[in-house]
Structures are given as structure tokens and as C-alpha cells.
């Protein structure tokens, strides 16, 4: 923050000097050409121009907090600059600047006023250009952070799925199925292929549609159901009206995987995972049948990355509820509006 303030201060100083030189230089050239001294000293005029430019730029660039003024609104910024112009004019009048001393002083005063207005307009233009460049830079940084968080989350899913334990279980499932049902084994391999294809294709994408995420999750859950036959039940109830909304890729799979990883899945104690829409959000809920500690080791990376991706996308966090017997995670469904992602607040 301090580094940014220092950089902004240098930009304001250099811009004010440039404006002062731009306004004063023609006077110096004309005075030199006519071999006369202007009625109002060039040095004093240049210093005055510099101070006005510096003040105007400082107020606009620093987004000074003033009651009733919202720096984010251009109409408020314009009103602030008009008030600043009036204030400077009153101050100059009180200081008798420029001092009428010659017959053509009215023309000089008129020229002075026009120059002052043009100077304020130039400062506002420079400040708006700086604000635009700053916002674009912040947007690029935000997008880079989002892509990084998304890549980290995707990598975590890939790492979890292609680790030896995952492959060992999947290959064992395929091996057992080949002897019993070759067609079922082929379907398992096809689902496994779809899982990897989706993860690889979604890498780098900030969001996908809920419809695409549900299709991917269907392939993933079929693999889980083959491995935990009779011990795992996944109930998905999503109205068609919500399938066009957006969410980070692999987010639903992360929540289902998280539930399976941390809870007992057995015929005697089946795990039921429910996926539904509530209050306009995607909710994943399961009863808590926590595994023994030696089997429930976790770094919390999956939920953390999912939380970070939402913060970068729309400055909104996921909702986690951990009651005595129920664990629930609610994901905001997003839509693209006015050039950015915003949560859907309507419960259709």
C-alpha cells in the first residue's frame, strides 16, 4: 500500500510539472519573441499553475474521501472538480491574482480564466486516464490470481485422482468388474476417461455452466458408486432453470469427494449426499459419520482453493455449515453482468 502511494505521488508530481511547463512555455516563447515582460511574472504564473495542477491531480488520483461524494461515480467526481474550480477562483480573487494593472487587463483576466479552466480539464483527463489504467491493472492482477487459484485447485484434483491410492482402487474395481461384467467395466473406464478429459479441458477456465459441471459429476459419481456399491447414495435435485448459471470448474466434484473422504462409507452405515438448490445457491449436504483420525487426515486445500476462487471471481465467499450431525457447503451460482461475475440472488 505504501509503495502504491509513493508511486502515485511521483506520478502526480511529474504530471503537475508537465502541465505547468505546457501552460507556461508558450508565454515564455511569446515574451522572448516580443522582447517584453508579461504583466504577470512568468515564474509566478508557472508556480501557480503547478500548485493548481498538483492539487487537482491529488484530489482526483487519491480519491479523497468527502462526505456525500462517491469517488467511484464519475458524476460525483465532476461535481467535485467544479467545486474545486470555484474554490480556486474565489481564492485567487481574495489574493488579487492576477492583479489588474494595465489597460488590457480585462483581456488578460479572461485569458487567465480560460487557461485555468483548461488546466483543470487537463488534470481531470489525466486523472481519469490514470484511474482507467489502474483499474485495468488491478483487473489483470485479479484475473491472474484467479487463474492461479483455479490451476492450483485443478492440480489438487488431478493429484488426488492420479495418486497411487486412487489408481490402485480404480484398477482393482476394473479388475473385479471384468470377471463379473465386462460391459460394466467398459463403462467404468469410459467414465474414468470422461473425468480426466473434463479436468484437463476445464483447466484455465474461470467458470463453467452448472449443466457442464453436473455432466462431469455424473461420470465421477458413477465411478464412486461402482467402488462403494450399496454404501453410497448421491441424490441430485437441480431444477432446469438453474443449469445455465456459472460456477468454478470441478467445484461440485470437490465437495462430493470431500464428503466421501471424511465419512464412513459402508453397507451398515451408508453415506447419503444430497445436492440441491436452496436460496438460489447450490448446496451439498451430508450426515456426518466421521472416519477415524488416521483415515481423515486433510490439509483443507480443496475447500480453501474453492473459497479463494470465489473471492477472486466475485468477492463472495462460500458458506460452510458444520452442525453436530450435518455438514453443508453452499456455493453461490454466478452470472456474467456488466463485464464481471456476480452472484445470482434470486431463488427462481
Automatic annotation (TrEMBL):
GO terms, molecular function: kinase activity
Pfam families: His_kinase
Record keyword Transcription present: no
Keyword check for Oxidoreductase: no
Signal transduction histidine kinase internal region domain ranges (all copies): 154-224
Alphabetical UniProt keywords: Kinase, Membrane, Transferase, Transmembrane, Transmembrane helix
Bilayer-spanning residue ranges: 12-33, 39-57, 78-97, 109-130
PANTHER family in the record: SENSOR HISTIDINE KINASE YPDA
Full protein name: Histidine kinase
Amino acid at each position: 500500500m505504501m509503495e502504491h502511494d509513493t508511486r502515485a505521488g511521483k506520478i502526480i508530481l511529474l504530471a503537475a510539472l508537465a502541465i505547468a511547463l505546457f501552460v507556461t512555455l508558450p508565454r515564455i516563447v511569446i515574451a522572448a519573441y516580443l522582447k517584453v515582460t508579461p504583466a504577470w511574472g512568468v515564474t509566478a504564473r508557472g508556480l501557480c499553475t503547478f500548485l493548481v495542477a498538483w492539487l487537482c491531480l491529488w484530489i482526483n488520483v487519491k480519491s479523497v474521501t468527502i462526505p456525500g461524494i462517491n469517488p467511484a461515480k464519475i458524476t460525483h467526481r465532476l461535481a467535485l472538480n467544479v467545486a474545486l474550480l470555484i474554490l480556486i477562483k474565489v481564492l485567487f480573487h481574495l489574493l488579487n491574482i492576477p492583479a489588474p494593472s494595465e489597460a488590457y487587463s480585462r483581456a488578460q483576466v479572461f485569458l487567465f480564466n480560460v487557461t485555468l479552466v483548461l488546466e483543470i480539464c487537463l488534470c481531470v483527463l489525466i486523472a481519469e486516464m490514470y484511474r482507467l489504467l489502474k483499474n485495468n491493472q488491478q483487473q489483470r492482477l485479479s484475473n491472474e490470481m484467479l487463474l492461479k487459484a483455479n490451476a492450483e485447485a485443478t492440480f489438487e484434483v488431478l493429484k488426488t485422482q492420479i495418486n497411487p491410492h486412487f489408481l490402485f482402487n480404480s484398477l482393482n474395481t476394473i479388475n473385479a468388474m471384468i470377471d463379473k461384467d465386462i460391459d460394466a467395466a467398459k463403462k467404468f473406464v469410459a467414465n474414468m476417461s470422461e473425468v480426466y478429459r473434463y479436468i484437463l479441458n476445464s483447466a484455465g477456465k474461470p467458470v463453467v455452466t452448472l449443466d457442464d459441471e453436473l455432466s462431469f459429476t455424473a461420470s465421477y459419481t458413477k465411478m464412486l458408486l461402482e467402488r462403494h456399491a450399496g454404501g453410497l447414495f448421491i441424490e441430485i435435485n437441480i431444477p432446469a432453470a438453474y443449469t445455465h448459471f456459472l460456477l468454478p470448474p470441478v467445484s461440485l466434484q470437490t465437495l462430493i469427494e470431500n464428503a466421501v473422504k471424511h465419512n464412513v462409507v459402508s453397507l451398515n452405515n451408508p453415506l447419503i449426499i444430497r445436492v440441491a438448490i436452496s436460496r438460489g445457491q447450490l448446496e451439498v449436504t451430508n450426515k456426518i459419520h466421521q472416519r477415524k483420525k488416521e483415515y481423515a487426515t486433510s490439509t483443507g486445500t480443496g475447500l480453501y482453493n474453492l473459497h479463494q476462487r470465489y473471492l477472486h471471481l466475485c468477492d463472495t465467499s462460500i458458506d460452510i455449515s458444520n452442525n453436530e450431525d450435518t455438514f453443508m457447503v453452499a456455493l453461490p451460482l454466478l452470472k456474467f453482468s456488466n463485464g464481471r461475475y456476480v452472484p445470482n440472488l434470486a431463488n427462481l
